[in-house]
Amino acid sequence: MFIKFDAADGEALADFLAGERWPFHTIEIVERADVLKRVADGYYDDETYWIEADGERAGIVRLFDLEDETPMFDLRIGERHRGKGLGRDAVTWLTDRLFGEFAHVERIEGTTRQDNVAMRRVFRRCGYVKEAHYRKAWPDASGHKHDSVGYAILRRDWQTGETTVPDFHDE
Question: Which of 18, 33, 85, 146 has the least C-beta neighbours within 10 A?
C-alpha cells in the first residue's frame, strides 16, 4: 500500500531514514537532521509515498523530475522488509502511476550500483531494460568507486508488454 507523505510526518521520515543503513545509496548513513532540513525545505512535498506492509511503514518511494519526459525515482525498503517483493511492487506501482497519470512521460529511468543484484532483478522483472553501464561512477562512503548501471522502460513497452532492447552493437 502506498500512502502520500505529509510534511507533518517529517519526524517519522527522519527516524525511518536515519534508523537504517542504505548500502546501495550514495549516502549509506543518513543523518536525521539532514532529513528534517529537507522536509522543511519541501524536498519530499510533491511525490513521496510511504510503502506500507503488514501494518507498518516498510519503505519510501520518491518520484522526481516529473516535468521531464523521463522522470526518475528513489526507492528505499527497510532492512526487515527486503527480499519480500516490496521493491517489485513499488516499481510496478510507480511505473503504472507515471505512465497512467502523466501523459508526457515517454520513459522512466532508474540507476543502481552494479552489485545491487536485488534491484537489478526488480528492474528486469518489471520490464525495465539495461541501457547504460558507467564504470567506476558510484563512490561509496569509503571512497571506493563501483560501477553503476542504468535501466529504463518505454511507454510503448509498458503498453504492449514487449521489451525493446537497445542496439549496443552499432559501432
Answer: 33
What is the rounded average pLDDT of the residues 16-40? Answer: 92
Which amino acid makes up residue 61? V
Cα–Cα distance between 170 and 160 in angstroms, integer?
25
**Cα 33–Cα 34–Cα 35 angle in degrees, nearest 5:** 90
Rounded CA gap, 28 and 115, in Å? 15
Query: Domains in the chain, ordered, with CATH?
Result: 2-160 (3.40.630.30)
Which of 140, 90, 91 is closest to 115 using CA atoms?
140
Alpha carbons 133 and 114: distance in angstroms, whole number: 8
User: pLDDT tens across 109-137, in order?
Assistant: 999 999 999 999 999 999 999 999 999 99
Rounded to the nearest 10 degrees, the angle between the axes of helix 32-40 and helix 10-18 is 150
Residues 6+ apart with CB under 8 A from 100: none
Count of CB atoms within 10 A of residue 29's CB?
12
pLDDT value for 45: 85
Q: Which pLDDT does position 62 carry in this prediction? A: 96
